[in-house]
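As a warm-up, study this chain.
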Amino acid sequence: MEKTYNLDQKENAMLMQIDQERTQALAAVGALSLDMEQARKNLDNAAERQRSFIRQALSTRGVEQFQNARAQNGALIVTLPEPMPQLNLPPAPASPLPADGLKVVERVNGPASDIVKE
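Now compare it with the structure written out below.
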């Protein structure tokens, strides 16, 4: 069941003031949301420009590969990849080929065998 109560003049004035405050607050939230969106775009743009600057500055110094780089206190701090050690391994022995030219497949656990169930 729904019932309607009419507001008197004083209550109606208070309700209109509250609605006006709510409308103003919603407008402020909308404006702040737009400002935050613009601020995020500005921040992303500045970060991309900084990354581009760092890549260009490292490129002019001959650094082509790096893992991480940042600008701090007027300097570029760069993490370079560790050089791979040269392993001098002897060449792998050539596997013998049978007379018919097919490669012999060696099984790690030996030749295949029949399983006998008891």
